[in-house]
Amino acid sequence: MGNFTTQYEIARQNANEYMRKGQIAQYFQALLEMNKYKKLMVAVIAN
C-alpha cells in the first residue's frame, strides 16, 4: 500500500510539473498513471 501511495505522489508531482511546462501529452499520461495507482489503492483497501 505504501508503495502505491509513493508512486501516486510521484505521478501527481510529475503531472503538476508537466502542466506548468505546457506539456499536454505528458500531463495526460501522468493523470492516467495517477488513476491507475488510485484504483490499485482502492482495490487493496477493499480486500
UniProtKB/TrEMBL annotation:
This is Uncharacterized protein. It comes from Tenacibaculum tangerinum.
